[in-house]
Amino acid sequence: MKKKLIYLLFPLLIFCSINNEDKPKSNPINNVVDWSESDRDLVNLINKYRLELNLSEFEPNMDLHNLCISRLEKMKLNGNISHNGIGEIFKEVHNKGYSNASELLAYGYSSNISVLNAWKNSEQHNKKIIVKGDFYVGVHVLEYDKKKYYILLTAEK
Question: What pLDDT is attached to residue 8?
Answer without folding.
Answer: 38
